[in-house]
Amino acid sequence: TLVPVEVDTEYFEYFIGKGRGKAEGGVELTHGKSHATAGLLEFALSASRKQIKSFFLKDKVKIALVDEFPDVESLSDQTTLALYGDRCLMDADEILIRGYVDLPQIKGLEATGDCTFKFISEKGSFTQIEGEEIAFDLTGEGNLKSLVVNRDVKISEEDVEKGSPRYIEGQKLQVLSDHGEGGAVLAGEIAAIIQGDIKESERQSVQQ
């Protein structure tokens, strides 16, 4: 059963023939347990009108994705960079979300302007990523295809089971995943590339 997206706003318009719409002023979106707020929303539906093709959110965007990836413990290889799938908190000036036209699944996301993404596990472990630009693409199964973070990159990681929090700074982060046909992740083919002046240190505590 598809879960509808509910929109609460001061102004709303939708062009049926084009499958496009716009909302302005105190925009609030709800999808199941997920929630988002922004000043402006522009959206487009697939040709069938059954799936969301894209959401563009602007002006103090805050998004909380909860249980959007129910079958994925982590979007990425946790030995490289754990992007937990239970809960994801996002803050940015602008966020574009792209969906698969034939699946109720996020395909990709692009954020710009003072971006902070926090991926949190059910047990409380987390990875927080900060940067001026963040973009990632996912497979139809919810696995990471690529992640790119540009300018003033800061990464905080804490695993509640393993301990030893980690903190990384740099100018660019790129996580690449090699996929075969059908979107299956090839084990061992995920690698993290950090570029720029890197400062990595073990901290006794990382603020959640």
Overview of the molecule:
By secondary structure, the chain is an all-beta fold. Strands 1, 2, 3, 4, 5, 6, 7, 8, 9, 10, 11 and 12 form a twelve-stranded antiparallel β-sheet that branches. The chain contains no helices and twelve strands. Mean pLDDT is 79; it is low at 179-208. 0% of the residues lie in helices and 61% in strands.
Quickly list its features.
208 residues, 12-stranded antiparallel beta sheet, disordered C terminus, mainly beta, 61% strand
Radius of gyration: 17 Å
- What fraction of residues sit in β-strands? over 45%
- Overall body shape: globular
Largest sheet: 12 strands, antiparallel
Number of strands: 12
- The SS-based structural class is mainly beta
Measured between the Cα atoms of the first and last residue, the distance is: 35 Å
Quick synopsis:
By secondary structure, the chain is mainly beta. It is built from no helices and twelve strands. Residues 179-208 have low confidence and may be disordered.
Topology:
Blueprint: E1 6-8, E2 11-15, E3 20-31, E4 34-45, E5 52-66, E6 87-99, E7 106-120, E8 126-138, E9 144-159, E10 163-176, E11 191-195, E12 199-202
Antiparallel strand pairs: 1-3, 2-3, 3-4, 4-5, 5-6, 6-7, 7-8, 8-9, 9-10, 10-11, 10-12
